[in-house]
Amino acid sequence: MLTVIAATQNKHKLTELRSIMEKFGMEVISQAEAGLGDIDVVEDGDTFEANSFKKANEIMKLSGKIAVADDSGLAVDYLGGAPGVYSARYAGEHKSDLDNNNKLLAELDGIENRRASFVSVVTMVYPDGKVLAARGECPGKIIHAPRGDGGFGYDPLFVPDGFEKTFAEITAEEKNTVSHRAKALEKLEEMLNK
Q: Does residue 77 carry a catalytic annotation?
């Protein structure tokens, strides 16, 4: 089984990466389990691709082992793709998911076009310089008020196409079959099997 280090401090992302990548025959370990402690790579790229690569590359250099990183966010059509790479800090640095959700709802108040997509770019960087990157998108819409207790981030506001429930209302197993992260990881698995 291939062991990779997840370049993230986000426990929710770590759980999803482990759950999905386990199906592909990969063991995902945390930075702490790899003996790296709490390393928070600054995400200052303009794209999901740039941030994902930077995180994976940094952890690979520090560990000397294969690292995988996900950079993801919500792209809202009416907002020209915002919050995008700034999804986690949309309402400002160190603000909560609730703050970000409230800001998004305020920006979409009275707006009919509520189409949006969750986007994920997963990058795997090897010590020999090999880089694999895959992008996944999950289209859907933003509802008018949060629903559900599961998930994280914008999950209580996002209903994926083909569903009546938000990401926060469906099970983790359901989410891990249709999410942006699942789609990116499926593409990554295809690359690994070529």
A: no
